[in-house]
Each structure stands twice: as structure tokens, then as C-alpha cells.
Amino acid sequence: MKDITVGIIGGTGGMGRWFADLLQKEGYPVHVWGRKSAMDINDLATLCNVIVIAVPISATAAMIERVGPLVPEGSLLMDLTSLKKEPVELMMANSRADVIGCHPLFGPGVDDAAGENVILCPARGQKWLIWLRNVLEKNGLAVMEKTPEEHDKMMAIVQVLNHLNTISLGMALTETGVSSEKISKYATPIFQTKLGIVKKVFTESPGLYADIIAKNPDTDKILKLYEKTLADIRQLIKSGDAARLKDALVQAAGKLF
Ligand SMILES: NC(=O)c1ccc[n+]([C@@H]2O[C@H](COP(=O)([O-])OP(=O)(O)OC[C@H]3O[C@@H](n4cnc5c(N)ncnc54)[C@H](OP(=O)(O)O)[C@@H]3O)[C@@H](O)[C@H]2O)c1
Question: How many Å apart are CA 72 and CA 45, to the nearest integer?
């Protein structure tokens, strides 16, 4: 496709910057926009025929409502948000442009995104979908097309359950009152790895993880499942009978793997 100019709102940092680099490498003119940018957001929308929303989850809805009406029919409005149902619905409701939800399943720190997964939620139009798929696949990304609902359901497992587990570990460690320096002296390699993950979640982008958990439509279901699982484990080990817990692990492994 000819004459493509991309505007990335939230392109001064994180995933927006990653996407800007990818598209620039492909030869497309890319304008990144952040809150301190000199360019007016209305001018950005006029200049570009692809507008990408890549701001923090907590700012995404308001940004789509502000920018969506500025993106005309025939252009593309897309986002990189870690959740898909609400942003895609809002992009559809607030614009007449083609709409694609996009979630790269990795962070901006990856050295090379080749081989990583990306989920696309096409919502309106075909021509931009073909363009976007081509750009991503050309760079070695594994692209899957899903509905926003399917996406959010799976993210309830891959992100909500996963991060809840990390947060529970970090909170419980804090409650022990033992310092991480002292804990580290006793650590096994696997524990050290887990402590590194806790540190990343608690110190690098706590707001991102909090939004991913708080805003997923299935979070309540996942929390109930997590609480039930802990209660079941408590029952299993209450009697001090390791064999019952071991049997439960063997049974679960049979189902999971
Ligand atoms: N980080 C990840 O691992 C990851 C992975 C996949 C998808 N995502 C998604 O990517 C999106 C951005 O996340 P990120 O981690 O890249 O965030 P980030 O590193 O904090 O970058 C956010 C960008 O948005 C701008 N921004 C911040 N607050 C804003 C506000 N209130 N209004 C308008 N612009 C604002 C920032 O620029 P200025 O400060 O210059 O304004 C920056 O360019 C989120 O939807 C997230 O779910 C993130």
C-alpha cells in the first residue's frame, strides 16, 4: 500500500516506541506523540492515515474518545492495549475508520520480537488488516486473529492468574517481615528467578499489572478460582498426609500436560 503515514499516540515510550521502530524500519514515516509533544493531536490525526493508541490502560478509553472522531473513514484506528474488549468497542463506537485491536504478547524490552506472539482483533475493514498482518509476519511475529472476548478470556489465565500469583508471592514475602537480602542468602535458583519476577512486577510497571488485573472482565472469576484452589490445597495438607497432595498433583499433571 502506498502513502502510509503512521501516528502513534504514546509512541514516546514503551510499546508505542517499539511499534514506531518496527514501522520505521519498514520504511514508513512515523510520528510519535506524547503529552509533551509540540504537535497538536488534531494535526497528527490529519497528517496520518494510521493512528495507533499506545497509552497506559488507565488513559486508553479517554484517548480513544478524544481521537476516534478525528480518524476518518478509510483510515486505520488501532491500539496496542493489553486488554481488547473495551478498547475495540470504544474504537468502533467513536470512529468511522477501519478498526483493529492489536496486543503484542511481549514487552518493549525484547531484543528481537521475531517468534513472539501477537493477537489481532479485526473489527472493521479488510485492507488494513492485510497490511498489518504482512508487516508483523515479515518481521517474524506469530499472528493470531481472535475476537476481543476470546482474547480477554485467555489473558485472564495468561496474565491475570499469572500476575496474581506473583503478587500473592510478593505480598506474602513482605508479610513475613524478612528482608529480601536475607531471603536471597537462603535462596535456591528457582526461588531467585521467582524473586526476580516479583521485583519486576512490583518495581518496573506496577500500574500496568494493576490495570491488567483490575480491568479484565474475568478477574472476579479468576480470583474465586485462586481462592478455591488455595482452600483445596489447605484441605489436602491439613492432615499432614503428603500422599494426598502428591496424588492431587499427579492428577492435575495428567489433565494439564
Ligand atoms: N509494557 C508491556 O509489556 C506491554 C505489552 C503489551 C502491550 N502493552 C500495552 O501498551 C500500552 C502502553 O503501555 P506501555 O507499557 O508501553 O506504557 P509506557 O511505557 O508507560 O508508555 C506510555 C506512553 O503513553 C504516554 N502517556 C503516558 N500517560 C499518558 C496519558 N495519561 N495520556 C496520554 N499519553 C500518556 C507516554 O508518553 P508521555 O509520557 O511522553 O506522555 C508514553 O509514550 C498499554 O495499553 C499496555 O497495555 C504493554
Answer: 9
Q: Are strands 117-124 and 98-104 parallel, antiparallel or unpaired?
A: antiparallel
Q: Give the model confidence (pLDDT) of 145-201 as tens digits.
A: 999 999 999 999 999 999 999 999 999 999 999 998 999 999 999 999 999 999 999
In the reported structure, the alpha carbon of residue 112 is separated from the centroid of ligand 1 by a whole-number distance in angstroms of 20
pTM over 0.85: yes
- Any atom of ligand 1 within 6 Å of the Cβ of 15: yes
State how far the Cα of 39 lies from the Cα of 57, in Å rounded to an integer: 23
Q: Sheet of 117-124: strands edge to edge?
A: 30-33, 6-9, 50-53, 76-79, 98-104, 117-124, 142-145
Contact 211, 56 (CB under 8 A): yes
Model pLDDT for residues 114-132, shown as the tens digit of each residue = 999 999 999 999 999 999 9
Q: How far is the CA of 148 from the centre of ligand 1 (A)?
A: 20
Q: Which atom of ligand 1 is nearest to the CA of 16?
A: 16
* CB 60 near ligand 1, within 6 Å: yes
Residue 140, by phi and psi: left (phi above 0), alpha (psi -120 to 50) or beta? left
Alpha-carbon span 31 to 43, nearest angstrom: 11
> Ligand 1 atom closest to Cα of 37?
40
Instruction: Give strand pairing partners of 101.
Output: 79, 121
Nearest CA to ligand 1 atom 18: 14
For residue 60, the ligand 1 atom closest to its alpha carbon is 45
Task: Report whether residue 71 contacts ligand 1, using a CB cutoff of 6 Å.
Answer: no
